[in-house]
Amino acid sequence: MAGQQPTLRAQRRAETQHAIQTHAVRLFRERGYDATTVADVADAAGVSPMTVYRHFPTKEDLVLVDQIGALVADRIAASPATRTLVGRIGGALVDAATALTGEDPESEGKFLLARTQLMISTPALRARHLDNQYLLQRAVVDALGDDVADPDAVFRAQAATSACLAALHTALVRWAEDDGRSALPELIAQALTASFGDDVLDHRR
Amino acid sequence: MAGQQPTLRAQRRAETQHAIQTHAVRLFRERGYDATTVADVADAAGVSPMTVYRHFPTKEDLVLVDQIGALVADRIAASPATRTLVGRIGGALVDAATALTGEDPESEGKFLLARTQLMISTPALRARHLDNQYLLQRAVVDALGDDVADPDAVFRAQAATSACLAALHTALVRWAEDDGRSALPELIAQALTASFGDDVLDHRR
DNA sequence: CTCCAAATGTTAGTGACTACCAAGTTGGTA
DNA sequence: TACCAACTTGGTAGTCACTAACATTTGGAG
């Protein structure tokens, strides 16, 4: 399910999807979310409005859908089970942020910043900022392996995920307000240590 | 602001508003929320679609807008400041529920039940079940009087309100699932005592 | 090469919601 | 009582998010 060879069709599909979302975020920031129609986005991306809807069920999803969830989920699954849950989740968040913001400035980092600022400044989107939470919830539960049978373990996983996401949210808001001048991974680490103590991420230092 | 004499104009306005909302909730329950158009509601209420939108900005508001918030707020403000915050809020909730469900069955109680069941069973509405929370938040802060200057007092008020609303939510869900057979005030009291101990509402017993 | 399925486009439509203008009512006031 | 201003409503036309149905092209597997 994860290591499928990238067929040409899937590649094209990913390209279209990426183009649509990039142009959407750009237009939303330039003209405002409400002042930009889905048709505008379609024109800018060089596709028909129908294609936009086939890739993103609603206009909100143009901003909300992300690949980061899967990125973080993979890192959680790959992290050693000997660490604490919060340590594994938090570490995955920091790692993912490092990977995303560390590349050349014109790349994913800038897009992530624009997307975050858009989500925070647009009322309709702000309310759904944590909607993708379920992706991480599932990843954490999956990472637990066979412990899923234990209800307590599942509850602990959900609690840990929620807490980590709250820290992530804090860091993202700060990062967006700072216009990306601070380093996102450090902000996340700060928020995590503020909540869980200095030694949460010790495994990585 | 509160004791205005009900002029004829305001009375008519309240009547149309009430008629629209009553027919809306009835139709939504009969045919489903999505399968009922605003035009259908307008027809049933004997007004034009424009009039519906003037009274209720969005279709969701046809279900969400209520007078209960104000009812509870008044009771909170009138309650003695010597009681605990949770006691005052909880007592107001129980009192309001008693007033609403105690009347003749064809009246407000039945409407409240239908409205609650609708909100719980409709995904688009369920997410906004606690949207009117701010009404109570304001009422509680107002009831605090001059303590508003104290940030701690405001935080305590918000925490107490949230906790009481969670209990109210639990009670409402149970009431709706029970199809109104249980007594709503008792369900609320149960949920409150489960969270805050047997003596929360003692002042009233 | 052939055939299937995925991806896109086109068209037509539904329905929530808004802007603008016209007409009738109400409530206070000269 | 007569009148004016504000309120309430209706109608028309339009925008825009979103859907359904059908036709067309193109990548992939046998």
CATH architecture of the largest domain in chain A: Orthogonal Bundle
Distance between the termini of chain A: 33 Å
The percent range for helix content of chain A is 55-70%
Structural class computed from helices and strand pairing of chain A: mainly alpha
Task: Provide mean pLDDT of chain A, rounded.
Answer: 88
Model description:
2 copies of one chain form a homodimer. With 205 residues, chain A is an all-alpha fold. Chain A folds into 2 domains: 8-62, Arc Repressor Mutant, subunit A, CATH 1.10.10.60; 66-200, Tetracycline Repressor, domain 2, CATH 1.10.357.10. Chain A is 69% helix and 0% strand. In chain A, helix 5 runs parallel beside helix 9. Chain A is globular, with a radius of gyration of 18 Å. The model of chain A has no long low-confidence stretch (mean pLDDT 88). The chains hardly touch. Chain A binds a DNA duplex (30 and 30 nucleotides) through helix 1 and helix 3.
